[in-house]
Amino acid sequence: MTSPTTASDVPDGAFSPLGQRLRMVLGAERVVGDLRRYFGLGLPPGTVPFTGSRFEHLAGGGDRPEVADRITAEDLIAVQTLSVTVPAPVALDILEGRLGVRLSGLLQAIPRDIDMADAEAVVVADGSPADQAWQLLEDQPDVGWVIAGKILARKRPRLLPVYDRVVRCAVGRPSSFWLALHTALREDDAALHRQLLELRQAAGLPETVSALRVCDVAVWMNHRALGHPCP
Asked: Which pLDDT belongs to residue 9?
């Protein structure tokens, strides 16, 4: 990845490419309705919400203090609500083997109670504990970047985003999505972060749904509705 970029690197009145794209998506009239539908608020009787609505809430969440620094079986089930499955050998190594010990050590060094918009770029930069944990997971057989990111988003929902093929198709492929999103959230005095919190409130979502997750769901639902192919 390239060196970290901060909001101070963006000229006054200008926005990063990712920031521009997200502002366009989040400004659509459909966003609040999409969020409510995804999380099952105000649905007609018999309508089933998206399984991903349970991702951050299953068993009280992956970042609750007693389990924040280890990946549990509940976390692996939560990841399945986002339509991916951790391969059984890797899951067993996480729960009972050396891989879980290594990941736990890295999780202890990743802040738990901070939003990405409030964190310094170094927290999500190349070589950070978060990046090392992502690399370690991504390198496991049949895991890859999507599953690795979703596992870490479950453990640090305020700091690390869900990023999958649909979101990538919608917003492009920056050299580092984490750093590009960090810049977008912080530029213009964190206007995008505040917008996400306002959308959360407007949709009636609980505060346990992070700003990052509001962003992910809004982008995912919008792109899905547009019917774009996402290889």
From this structure: 44
Contacts of 153 by beta carbon, 8 Å cutoff, 6+ apart:
160, 161, 162, 212, 213
Q: Quick check: pTM over 0.70?
A: yes
Q: Which amino acid is at 93?
A: D
DSSP codes, the chain = -PPP--GGGSPTT---HHHHHHHHHHTSTTHHHHHHHHTT-SPPTTPPPPGGGGTTTGGG-TTSTTTTTS--HHHHHHHHTTT----HHHHHHHHHSHHHHHHHHHHTTS-SS--GGGS-GGGGSTTSHHHHHHHHHHTSTTTHHHHHHHHHHHHSTTTS----HHHHHHH---S-HHHHHHHHHHHHHHHHHHHHHHHHHHHT--TTS-HHHHHHHHHHHHHHHHT----
Residue ranges of domains in the chain: 15-42+49-226
pLDDT digits (tens, 9 = 90+) for 64-86: 999 999 999 999 999 999 999 99
CA distance 97 to 189: 44
* Cβ(103)–Cβ(137) below 8 Å: yes
pLDDT score of 170 more than 60: yes
